[in-house]
Amino acid sequence: MNPLRDTALVFRRYILQTLRNPVWMFFGIVQPIMYLVLFAPLLVKVASSAPGFPKGGAYNVFIPGLLVQLGLFGASGVGFGLISELRMGVIERFRVTPISRISLLLGRALRDVVIITAQSLLLVICAIPFGLTINAGGILLALLLIALIGLLTASLSYTIALAVKSEDAFAPIVFGATLPLLLLSGVLLPLQLAPGWLRTVAAFNPLKYAVDAARAAFNSHLTDIAVVQGFAVMLGLGIVAVVLAARAFGRAVA
Amino acid sequence: MTTAIAPADDAAQAPDGDVAIRTRRLRRTFTTRGRGTVEAVRGVDLEVRNGEIFGFLGPNGAGKTTTLRMLATLLTPTSGEAVVAGADLLTQGGLVRRRIGYVGQTGGSDIIETGRGELVFQGRLHGMSKSQAEVRAAELLETLEIESCADRKTQTYSGGQRRRLDIAIGLMHRPRLVFLDEPTTGLDPQARAHLWTEVRKLRDRGTTVFLTTHYLEEADALCDRVAIIDHGSIVIEGSPDALKRQVAGDAITLSLQGEHENAFAQLQALPFVREASAENGLIRLYVDRGETAMPALMRALDAANLEMATLTVARPSLDDVFLAKTGRSLRDDNPN
Asked: Which of A:18-47 have CB within 8 Å of B?
């Protein structure tokens, strides 16, 4: 079968499911908005007084991190839906059709990416009245990066879900992995404020490079080495994750 | 993609045009934590003919579902080979998937989708255009009498409606061979009878049906031929009638007044008794023909001064076949 047509077909099924029940999309955006309204204002003074706080102002430093967080949180839980479909036999049913194996993954992950990108855009717009300064190129680059994070995280989430097949096993893995990844990426406060040991540990966290790249993009340093690094890391891991997940979809579903 | 239903006859005929499924020494082992390697299916040879309802019987854990999942391309056999719907299972999995319908134990429809939506999507997965899929979906909704709930989410369906939808999903692309994994488990008698009718209609339209069940009555009433699997191996295969004849003729079950130590041995030794067993004070004798054996049995009992307390004569059931072949009753549903 034609992988493009099949991917579009699967994408359509899942985006319609999401749109029919938009309350979940709303939940996904509530948390970042709360951070924007209830936490970001605390950073204004810190940004101007703390030595080492990156330049660009509180919002231009904080919002890129918040977007990365949105991408990670939004995509890490997508495996829950897959597990309930596994239980209903839906995935098994799909697998006994000629549909291309990679489309089963790509169609769903594309839905996740579209939702996350739309939420990110909404968050950016909401942040402008607070004092976020933007440029079109930087926003575009940042959204592309968030989309990549979404694809990477969703693929990993699906791979884990297909491996463990139960919510009870899936939940602790996902919640256990996302929080340290976030804290070690300088999402809430820039790692420039961190002691040396913490920065050393964070250097092994791929998500840190994504946050650095998003911040550089938001501050109009589009050709900064951080942007190149961030994209390279996310793209490399993204490809690995997609291959892993596509193979997991193709393998036996017990 | 405009090629519609990926018609089932797009390749050369099977080596033997009469055969829907043929397996040779199909084996599957699982590696489990703690118990090491478990041999779930150990060398299964099967032949299912085109146009028949083939029942695959066995207790839970006997290897039924593992075998079916291998034939439906969901599990890779550890060894052995098979031709399914005219395509080689190991090298032409894609072709097999185009030609077969598969209805798993858990069904496969999502509770947040409508029945019609699931049917149309299934058609699209098989390469149909939207309008083709809609026409075919309407046709199946009518045939299986689920039009009334077609546009409701499937979470509102009754067990019988859901099962009929599952089967409709498996039939969307007009497969030549359909796998039904325990299609009537959990249904009430009326829904079960309804489903049997649908399965027979399928066969009458030329579709081959391969179903698993642990209901013997179901296999007996519905299937043209059955195979019984136990501990991962085929124990016996044939038409229900032939199996029953082959194992033993009619079953005479009797109990005697008082205690008689030698009674069983005496009865077992009678010339017309083919097999005999004793359990909980009941003696069961298998004879070729109950109606001619009865008078002879009466005379033998008289001669031995034995007096009967109870007596029943029954045509053998598939359970008798299973009992004779494995030494235990399928009804125990023993998961070993």
From this structure: 20-21
Residue to substitute from A16, A83, A96, interface B, most B β-carbons within 10 A: A96
Which residues make beta-bridge pairs with B255?
Answer: B310
Each of the 336 residues of chain B gets a pLDDT tens digit; together they read 333 443 344 334 445 678 999 999 999 998 887 778 888 999 999 999 999 999 998 888 888 989 999 999 999 999 999 999 999 999 999 999 999 999 998 889 999 999 999 999 999 999 999 999 999 999 999 999 999 999 999 999 998 999 999 999 999 999 999 999 999 888 888 888 888 998 999 999 999 999 998 788 888 889 999 999 988 999 889 998 888 777 657 888 888 887 777 788 888 888 888 888 887 778 888 888 788 888 888 888 888 888 888 888 887 777 777 777 777 776 654 443
Q: Are B296 and B259 in contact (CB under 8 A)?
A: no
Domain range for residue A206? 3-40+53-250
User: Does some domain include residue A146?
Assistant: yes
For chain A, the domain total comes to 1
Which residues, including other chains, have CB under 8 Å from residue A141's CB and lie 6 or more apart? A217, A222, A227
Report yes or no on A45 lying in a domain: no
Please check whether residue A141 is in contact with residue A222, taking contact to mean a CB–CB distance below 8 angstroms.
yes
Q: Where are the beta strands (DSSP E) in chain B?
A: 19-32, 36-49, 53-57, 79-84, 87-88, 100-103, 177-181, 208-213, 225-230, 233-238, 250-256, 273-279, 282-287, 308-314
* Alpha-carbon radius of gyration of chain B: 24
- Parallel/antiparallel/unpaired status of strands B177-181 and B100-103: parallel
The CATH number corresponding to B19-111+167-243 among 3.40.50.11270, 3.30.1360.120, 3.90.550.10, 3.40.50.300 equals 3.40.50.300
**DSSP symbol at A191:** G
Tokens of A40: 């970001």
Question: Inter-chain contact A89–B126, Cβ cutoff 8 Å?
Answer: no
Q: Are A68 and A143 spatial neighbours (Cβ–Cβ below 8 Å)?
A: no
Could A96 and B112 be called an inter-chain contact, meaning their C-beta atoms sit closer than 8 Å? no
pTM of the model: 0.84
Rounded Cα gap, residues A240 and B28, in angstroms = 30
Residue to mutate among A97, A108, A249, A253, with most B CBs inside 10 A, is A97
Contact (Cβ atoms closer than 8 angstroms) between residue B8 and residue B174:
yes
* Whole-complex ipTM: 0.91
Return the exposure string of B98-109: e unless at least 16 CB atoms fall within 10 Å of the residue's CB, then b. Answer: bbbbbbbbbbbb
List the single best residue of A5, A90, A93 to mutate versus B (max B Cβ within 10 A): A93
CB-closest option in A17, A95, A98 to B112: A17
- CATH number given to B249-315: 3.30.70.100
Each domain of chain B, given as residue ranges in start order, spans 19-111+167-243, 249-315
Take residue B309 and report the two structure tokens written for it. 């307390």
* DSSP structure string for A150-168: HHHHHHHHHHHHHHH-SHH
Residue B74 to residue A92, Cβ atoms within 8 A: yes
B121 touches chain A (CB under 8 A): yes
**Does A48 fall in a domain?**
no
Residue B11 in tokens:
């390749």
